[in-house]
Design goal:
Largest sheet: 6 strands, mixed
Shape: globular
Order of helices and strands: HEHEHEHEEEH
Number of strands: 6
Radius of gyration: 17 Å
Helix content: 25-40%
């Protein structure tokens, strides 16, 4: 159970992460209430009902598309954002790459060196999510800084 002290501790971070294997779905609203972005990894354990129940409390949904058709996955991404309230939804699709939807546009990324012959892919999805989030939130901070500098006028320290 997430307490007020737990919420205060969570709010000291830039982003919170949970997953379908954390078994705290009933506590996600408390994390959302901290005001920091909450990302959730559905792995390959998802249905429309799980999206409906969880997406309103999270910022970014990640899920594995495995062998599913890309067009059907795009519909799921759009559903997470437009119908259930995520800011963004992302699916990884193995050797076919990844697809991201931000409410306006779909982005696709092919894997790097897929033919390189990975011996063990354990943790690959978690590593991918970490790299995506690190890059996304670092660039988001830069973008917000540029907007603030623009609104306040360009200063010597802002150059």
């Amino acid at each position: 159970m997430i307490t007020e002290a737990g919420q205060k501790y969570i709010s000291s971070f830039d982003v919170a992460h949970s997953s379908c294997f954390s078994y705290i779905e009933d506590q996600l609203g408390k994390i959302k209430a901290t005001g920091i972005p909450l990302v959730f990894d559905f792995s390959d354990v998802w249905t429309e009902d799980t999206f409906k129940n969880i997406c309103p409390d999270i910022s970014i949904a990640f899920f594995s598309g495995k062998e599913r058709e890309k067009e059907a996955l795009k519909e799921q991404l759009e559903m997470c954002v437009k119908e259930y309230g995520c800011e963004m939804a992302v699916t990884t699709i193995g050797g076919r790459g990844a697809v991201v939807y931000n409410g306006r546009k779909f982005y696709e990324k092919l894997p790097y060196n897929f033919e390189g012959g990975a011996i063990d892919t354990t943790g690959a999805g978690d590593s991918w999510i970490t790299a995506f989030l690190s890059s996304y939130y670092a660039n988001d901070k830069k973008k917000k800084g540029l907007i603030l500098n623009h609104e306040g006028g360009i200063t010597e320290s802002g150059l």
